[in-house]
Design a protein that fits this description.
The relative contact order is 0.10. The chain has a two-stranded antiparallel sheet. By secondary structure, it is mainly alpha-helical. The chain has helices at residues 13-30, 32-42, 48-58, 65-72, 76-88, 110-130, 136-171, and strands spanning 92-97, 100-108. It contains 7 helices and 2 strands; from the N terminus they run αααααββαα. The chain is flat. GO terms for molecular function: DNA-binding transcription factor activity.
């Protein structure tokens, strides 16, 4: 399935700067050394993919593995492997899907929730130190704008998915 091309609209200088800043943030936050430091502070021996999965689960009701994969933007097989490892380690459990007893949902265990809480607290402490000179109002504005941006990215992604489905249906 091919992705429809993006409209040929030039990006504004402000959007270019935002994209550059996000690239820098992504690089800094996904460095192996940074992840290892955060896990050591939190006392949680997990890789980045496992932490991303646990964080997503902590922010939602129990989900099917396919839905977790969609939310994380990864292949379902990736989530299946991660869930198996996390289940063996006691971080997650499988429970019957109340809408379809043949299916299962994944939920955090108490150990999993405690791990997420420790990771979030360690991350927030580091962020607090970095943003210590920011006023509460600046922090509220930044949080609000970040949430708005993420919501807009998700909306655009859903719209592109619908366009891809429509394009695929037209070529079938």
């Amino acid at each position: 399935m091919s992705t429809p091309p993006l409209p040929n609209v030039p990006a504004s200088p402000e959007v270019i700067e935002i994209e550059r800043a996000l690239t820098r943030i992504t690089y800094l936050s996904t460095r192996t050394r940074q992840h290892e430091r955060l896990m050591a502070l939190a006392g949680v021996p997990l890789d980045r993919a496992a932490v991303a999965l646990l964080r997503q689960m902590a922010d939602s009701e129990p989900l099917r593995p396919g839905e977790l994969a969609n939310r994380l933007g990864v292949e379902a097989s990736h989530v299946t492997r991660q869930v198996q490892q996390l289940q063996r380690s006691g971080y997650v459990d499988r429970i019957p899907d109340p809408d379809d007893r043949r299916a299962q949902r994944i939920k955090l265990t108490k150990v999993g929730q405690e791990a997420v809480d420790r990771v979030r607290e360690a991350g927030a402490r580091g962020m607090q130190l970095a943003l210590d000179d920011w006023s509460p109002e600046e922090l509220r504005q930044l949080a609000s704008l970040f949430h708005r941006m993420v919501d807009d990215f998700l909306r655009q992604g859903e719209e592109l998915t619908e366009q891809e489905k429509a394009a695929s249906a037209n070529t079938a």
